[in-house]
Design brief:
single chain, 7-stranded mixed sheet, binds S-adenosyl-L-homocysteine, 213 residues, alpha/beta, binds calcium ion, globular, Rossmann fold, 8 helices
Amino acid sequence: MNLLDEKLSDYAESHTSDESDVLRQLNRETNAKVMLPQMLSGHLQGRFLSMISKMILPKSILEIGTYTGYSAICLAEGLSNDGVLHTIDINEELEEMVTKYFDQSGISKKVKKYIGNALEIIPNINDTFDLVFIDADKINYSNYFDLVIDKVTPGGYILADNVLWSGKVVEDKKDKDTEAINNYNEKIQNDPRVENALVPIRDGIMIARKIID
Ligand code: SAH
Ligand code: CA
């Protein structure tokens, strides 16, 4: 999933602030015990998400795709004191581990966890968002954008992960997920409600900012 060669990505990591002990432990436990541990954001992307969140200082964040909670903890680092992070995952088996690490990182008071299908849950969250992180099933990225755009504060941000999909977006023959991600990138590029930058960090993050009109 890393588009940079190993030497350069090691160099970037070694010039990036360390992850906290809790995040390092969560990273380890995910790799030891959970299926598809490569889905976890990891050190470099985690620090990037933390940095983005600290720039925005959001009052409210929505994360779609909690997995083991790594990116949620990073994003929460930028929350204002009375801020809240809503995070959704369909996989109930991860909940115990997520709860443990949210507690250890001291963010539990600020987090609202939802277990279930994000497509059904998002319309029932009665809040607006300064920052959204889309990182669940790739097939629904465009649907998630449609569900959140009216709930995003003007000047707020929608980040979407894995938008380069290991480089498959530029191949001629595209499988379903690649097609969905490509459609998402095209949609963002052509939607006048947002300005955007596709940042080729790790597996690619599309940053879209809702225009203030
Ligand atoms: N954001 C995490 C990784 C997320 S992996 C990190 O960076 O560390 C993607 C997650 O999306 C998986 O845990 C999967 O269970 C969840 N997911 C897939 N389809 C979903 C759906 N329809 N609704 C909610 N979550 C979903
Ligand atoms: Ca991801």
